[in-house]
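The methods section describes the discrete structure representation at length, but only in general terms. An entry of this sort, consisting of the sequence and the corresponding backbone structure tokens, reads as follows:
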Amino acid sequence: MTAVLAYLQDMGGYMLLALPVWLTVRTLFLLSQHERPRWGRELGMAVFALYCVGLFSQTLLPVGLVWPAPRAALEAALRRWHTGQGINLLPLDTVRRFWRYGSQQQLLVNLAGNVAVFVPLGLLPPALWRGLRRLWKTALLCCVCSCLIEFFQLFIGRSVDVDDVILNTLGGVLGYLLFALLWALFSRRKARS
């Protein structure tokens, strides 16, 4: 449980740093568009932007916050690709190993964490943009985002795992199902009023 709290604390720090930047940029955008803000939507947009910062901080920042030089990163990525070091392309292999040999903390952080971290990506975009109010579109968005994260992790020395894509996409689908449930409840309540 302490590992989960450490991730949340680290994410929260980046999100807190990003908050004034988001508020400034969004305010300037709304002023330039001469739009009156809809506060519910603005709150949702802020939560989504901060979630994206938090997700980025936990998946795409290199260890020690030191970015490798582009040429060195490419050479290391090619070497890792050829040797397979830190790369799993066998679906559900990592899940099986964690399930069989991992501790409860490893299961929680690696399996449940990979699902949970993408629930907001399945929940927030359909709530904010009508064009994403189809399960397949949200699942595709989550899958593509996860694939991009895994691809870029190859260049920063982090592990690359197809199981992360599977678990992330599952988390996005669960987030969408939560959105659909909340939307149905909200629509039913609105119809009664």
About this structure: The chain has a mean pLDDT of 92. Strands lie at 87-88, 160-161. Residues 87 and 160 are 5 Å apart (CA to CA). The chain is about 75% helix and 0% strand.
